[in-house]
Design brief:
This protein has 490 residues and is an alpha/beta fold. The protein has 2 domains: 250 residues, 3-Layer(bba) Sandwich (FAD/NAD(P)-binding domain), CATH 3.50.50; 113 residues, no CATH class. Helix 1 packs parallel to helix 3. The strands form 5 sheets. The protein has a 6-stranded mixed beta sheet. A 5-stranded parallel beta sheet has the order 8-17-9-10-13. It is globular. The longest helix is centred in the C-terminal third of the chain and has 23 residues. The chain is 36% helix and 19% strand. The termini are close together. Bound molecules: flavin-adenine dinucleotide.
């Protein structure tokens, strides 16, 4: 008897799920499990974020936040110590490509370990186009090359996709829609090229750091907000007094009470929440960015609060009603994300230097970019900053719209899954099992990551992925065990 499992997508989520499954199933099974990972890219693990690229682009979190093992925060650090100790300074943020290697090595090691337990893992280098229900226990996966394969369990781990071509410039050879891998896409840029980078967040910063290393002098970040993310100083341990799990669990939590507790926590720690969250909405420049660096260096407690409350907020998110969640996503998340995804001081200093020399400029109020006499012309709301560029790079990052892809659309049409009012598809909070329009939870189809955004507070970080992978693996292992004796899998 063999249980068939398909994991669609071979990024960090797929590796974390396999890793957890290997822990959960601690001894050899007396039945077989076959796991097919569908991933068109050559290496499992790297996904969109951790592809082989310049080492200048770093993780946006310290290594202890990047462990795929939820019981061992040092799992990634230990791997680096063992395999690349002399190459890296552990006090710094480590390269994303190194993290991709960690994931890939873990995938290979976990697959070997699982094989000894009667679980075979295969990497199928194909893209999945559709999933059809055969029975409640059997699903047909249609992949590129018109292949059809049958599975008892399917896990959607497809990640997100980049915001495509926001100003309709795709036809122009000097427009770079997808900047990663930077070493491949931007290698040809010359020092005197005048480069416009759309965006001023994490992807734009990766692009800028790479261009700086290549001596490209005239770089302008063009965005709507004109703001850079906050800066993260050195982390310290803190005790929370108000936003404690115990207190929150006793209360009937709603958004208003949550915000009150947040402000009390800030007040108790003598942090000016206005300084952190309500800085004037002016364009970032040398002076404003110096202030952000000073705030990070002098008192990083505001960040410690955000870091410590992050896991708790995830638990609370499920208690908020749909209207509150919609309000939060629209009004508060844009304030929260640039601060929670703050950049490390090492990168902030590079940015500050270039703002001072004017090698980097940041302009807000972007309305349009159009082709004009073999170049690009920008249009801003104030009409005064309009400029022309030789090259435009799209660095707007992941798209918020995550259900518009062929696979998800067909599954929605067949009512195998349903959309969540706050974004993505509906899943059960604890098991990742998808939920249909009729509110039926299906333990045979699970989803993780970007596609599940509306259900959780913030889905796009490794800590979350590792935690959810563990929960999904436990539930999957239980279902397989409970069902294996039934004839359903015959
Ligand atoms: C540029 C960037 C930098 C980031 N940096 C950090 C960081 O420093 N720290 C952090 O914690 N988080 C970071 N993140 C968030 C990151 O997305 C998560 O940490 C994590 O990598 C998500 O993993 P995933 O497997 O869910 O998605 P992904 O890593 O995106 O993997 C999904 C995989 O699914 C495959 N796929 C998609 N559709 C199909 C299909 N139909 N059939 C078959 N395969 C398919 C794709 O090819 C891809 O390989 C970053 C994200 C990005 C985009």
């Amino acid at each position: 008897m063999e249980v068939q499992v398909a994991i669609i997508g071979g990024g960090a989520s797929a590796v974390s799920i396999l890793y957890s499954l290997n822990k959960v199933l601690d001894k050899a099974l007396d039945y077989r499990i076959n796991i097919d990972i569908y991933e068109p890219n050559k290496e499992v693990g790297r996904g969109l974020a951790y592809i082989e690229d310049s080492e200048i682009i770093k993780l946006n979190r310290p290594p202890i936040d990047m462990s795929i093992d939820i019981q061992n925060k040092n799992h990634f650090l230990d791997w680096v110590s063992k395999n690349a100790k002399d190459l890296y300074d552990f006090s710094e943020y480590l390269p994303r490509s190194l993290y991709g290697k960690y994931l890939n090595v873990n995938y290979l090691e976990t697959s070997t370990s699982l094989l000894k337990k009667n679980i075979k893992v295969n990497h199928i280098r194909e893209k999945v186009r559709g999933i059809k229900k055969v029975t409640s226990e059997l699903y047909k996966v249609l992949s590129s090359g018109n292949k059809e394969s049958y599975y008892n369990f399917v896990i959607l781990a497809i990640g997100g996709k980049n915001n495509d071509d926001p100003y309709d410039l795709m036809e122009d050879p000097n427009f770079i829609n997808e900047p990663y891998p930077l070493e491949e896409k931007l290698y040809h840029l010359k020092p005197d090229d005048k480069v416009g980078v759309i965006g001023s967040s994490l992807t734009a910063i990766d692009v800028f750091l790479y261009l700086k290393q290549k001596n490209v002098k005239k770089c302008t970040m063009l965005s709507r907000s004109g703001q850079l993310p906050s800066v993260r100083g050195l982390d310290s341990d803190i005790n929370l007094h108000y936003l404690k799990e115990k207190i929150l669990r006793c209360k009937n939590v709603n958004l208003e009470c949550l915000l009150t507790l947040f402000l009390k926590e800030f007040e108790e720690k003598s942090i000016s929440w206005k300084e952190v969250f309500l800085e004037k909405n002016e364009e970032e420049n040398y002076t404003t960015f110096s202030k952000k660096i000073r705030l990070a260096k002098e008192n990083n407690t505001w960040f410690d609060v955000l870091r410590e409350t992050h896991p708790i907020l995830d638990e609370i998110w499920v208690c908020l009603n749909d209207e509150e969640r919609k309000y939060f996503v629209k009004r508060l998340l844009p304030l929260y994300i640039p601060r929670r995804a703050a950049i490390p001081l090492i990168n902030a200093r590079e940015i500050l230097d270039s703002l001072e020399t004017k090698d980097l400029q940041i302009i807000g109020g972007l309305q349009r970019i159009e082709q004009y006499k073999n170049r690009f012309r920008t249009c801003f709301s104030n009409n005064q900053d309009n400029q022309s560029f030789d090259i435009i790079i799209n660095a707007t990052g992941l798209s918020g719209e995550n259900t518009n892809n062929e696979l998800i659309e067909t599954m929605l049409e067949d009512n195998l899954i349903s959309t969540h009012i706050a974004g993505g598809i509906r899943v059960d909070f604890n098991t990742g099992s998808v939920i249909s329009n009729e509110n039926k939870t299906n333990p045979n189809i699970k989803a993780i990551g970007h596609i599940t955004s509306g259900n959780f507070f913030v889905v796009n970080n490794l800590e979350f992925i590792a935690k959810k992978s563990f929960e999904i693996s436990c539930d999957l292992a239980n279902h397989i065990k409970n069902n294996i004796m039934s004839k359903e899998f015959a």
